[in-house]
């Protein structure tokens, strides 16, 4: 009996909460309506906004964000941000609201789609998405600004896209639609591509195969999904135009909006991939690096920045990989990249003796700057060209052992040995970090200054004058 009373009490409280929210919403909408009537009377040129529009603009976004919060599509900060974005876009134009609704619903559904598969692909996967206010404003910030400019230009209400009659407002409409289509296309690509694609993604800047989850990686399935995502937003905008805009037959044809949305979705996803391949960063600061499971790697393959997520013995590892290809123009900037690194991968071409000598230069510099705690990997690449080898296995492995590094054999062309290289390096870095933590706990001094104060004796004058770098341009 007590149990039934508790259930009834919870239902009663829930009902009362809904009633209070509804009454508060009505009061707020009427308050805004009174303000708009007063402003229109005072200025004379402003058109008052219907109380029903105020009510709809508050109540519907509030309902949607509450449901999203319960389904964990948004966290609390994300719900507040989404409420603000939804209110402004709905107040400005119902077509804006329709496009936003298409983005929000489809993205939320796809985020929860195939969750078990995504958990295996991404160790950092969050159930439902749980987007915060930063993610909400990254997707909705520009549309919100455009909606405010639209209301300043023509006031709240629906209008056709017609450059002959409303030039600047039409540009605002298309810009807002394009921004939402870009966000939708990118979300569809990231949620559908990794799950359905039967091939590995390719880096959009070089078109070489990269591991799943690499920033800048694209697949044909993902690009098609981005096109369809933008198409969905364009269709939603077009339908609302047909239903809500008066005298639509007097304006220019509106159907190109659908194609525009689809192309914006595709181009938005591709642009995001290009930016991800060059600029995207998901690493951590040097302080508290191990506690946050972020490990930096200074990797000398090409001039770019990449990330790679791994799950090792139940620990989530996010590799931040700085990659300069050992090119001389980046040599002076080297300390900026590797000063907080936990590990380094130094690659040489087994068919090029000079590249192996340059690796020795890098080893000396890294040891001098970072000491013996950094995990070094010396990698002999292009083992598929064994017949053209100029650096013997004995020489390379002997040198690696002499400097406390591990030697690996890889073939980027055949994708051989690369995954094992990263997994082994991660394990070594984690073991080193754990040892440092234990040493600190025992009261041992582990200051950064003493750790980086190791002096390297130059025992190879020829290498000292060699140009900075570790591998050929190939």
From TrEMBL:
Keywords: GTP-binding, Lipoprotein, Membrane, Nucleotide-binding, Prenylation, Protein transport, Transmembrane, Transmembrane helix, Transport. The keyword Membrane applies. One of its GO terms (cellular component) is cleavage furrow. Residues 443-452 have a biased composition (Polar residues). Signal peptide: none annotated. It holds the Pfam family Ras. GO terms for biological process: protein transport; Rab protein signal transduction. Its main location: other. It is found in: Cleavage furrow; Endoplasmic reticulum membrane; Membrane. InterPro entries: DUF92_TMEM19, P-loop_NTPase, Rab21, Small_GTP-bd, Small_GTPase. Residues 436-458 are annotated as: Disordered. The keyword Nucleotide-binding applies. The chain crosses the membrane at residues 20-45, 81-105, 221-245, 257-281. It is a lipid-anchor; Multi-pass membrane protein. One of its GO terms (molecular function) is GTP binding. Belongs to the TMEM19 family. Belongs to the small GTPase superfamily. Rab family. This is Ras-related protein Rab-21. The gene is LOC110511982.
């Amino acid at each position: 009996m007590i149990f039934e009373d508790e259930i009834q009490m919870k239902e009663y409280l829930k009902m009362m909460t809904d009633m209070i929210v509804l009454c508060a919403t009505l009061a707020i909408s009427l308050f805004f309506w009174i303000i708009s009537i007063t402003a229109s009377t005072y200025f004379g040129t402003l058109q008052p906004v219907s109380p029903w529009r105020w009510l709809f603009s508050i109540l519907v976004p509030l309902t949607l964000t509450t449901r999203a919060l319960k389904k964990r599509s948004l966290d609390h900060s994300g719900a507040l941000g989404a409420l603000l974005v939804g209110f402004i876009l709905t107040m400005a134009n119902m077509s804006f609201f329709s496009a936003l609704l298409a983005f929000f619903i489809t993205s939320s559904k796809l985020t929860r789609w195939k969750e078990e598969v995504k958990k295996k692909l991404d160790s950092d996967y969050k159930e439902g998405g749980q987007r915060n206010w930063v993610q909400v404003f990254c997707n909705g910030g520009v549309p919100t600004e455009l909606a405010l400019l639209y209301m300043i230009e023509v006031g709240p209400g629906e209008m056709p896209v017609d450059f002959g009659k409303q030039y600047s407002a039409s540009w605002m409409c298309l810009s807002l639609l394009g921004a939402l289509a870009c966000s939708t296309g990118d979300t569809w690509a990231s949620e559908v591509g990794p799950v359905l694609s039967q091939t590995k993604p390719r880096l959009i800047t070089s078109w070489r195969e990269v591991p799943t989850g690499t920033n800048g990686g694209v697949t044909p399935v993902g690009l098609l999904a981005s096109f369809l995502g933008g198409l969905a937003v364009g269709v939603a905008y077009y339908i609302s135009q047909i239903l809500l805009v008066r005298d639509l037959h007097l304006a220019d044809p509106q159907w190109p909006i659908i194609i525009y949305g689809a192309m914006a979705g595709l181009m938005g996803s591709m642009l995001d991939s290009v930016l991800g391949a060059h600029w995207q960063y998901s690493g951590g600061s040097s302080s508290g690096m191990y506690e946050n499971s972020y490990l930096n790697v200074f990797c000398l393959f090409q001039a770019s920045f990449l990330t790679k997520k791994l799950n090792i013995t139940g620990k989530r590892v996010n590799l931040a990989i700085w990659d300069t290809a050992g090119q001389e123009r980046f040599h002076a900037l080297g300390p900026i990249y590797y000063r907080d690194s936990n590990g380094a991968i130094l690659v040489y071409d087994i068919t090029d003796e000079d590249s192996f000598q340059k690796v020795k230069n890098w080893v000396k510099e890294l040891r001098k700057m970072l000491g013996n705690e950094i995990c070094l990997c010396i990698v002999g690449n292009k083992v598929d060209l064994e017949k053209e080898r100029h650096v013997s296995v004995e020489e390379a492995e002997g040198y690696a052992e002499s400097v406390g590094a591990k030697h690996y054999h890889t073939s980027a062309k055949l994708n051989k040995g690369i995954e094992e290289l990263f997994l082994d390096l991660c394990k070594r870095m984690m073991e080193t970090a754990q040892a440092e933590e234990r040493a600190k706990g025992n009261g041992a001094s582990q200051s950064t200054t003493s750790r980086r104060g190791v002096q390297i004796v130059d025992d190879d004058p020829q290498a000292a004058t060699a140009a900075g770098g570790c591998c050929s341009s190939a």
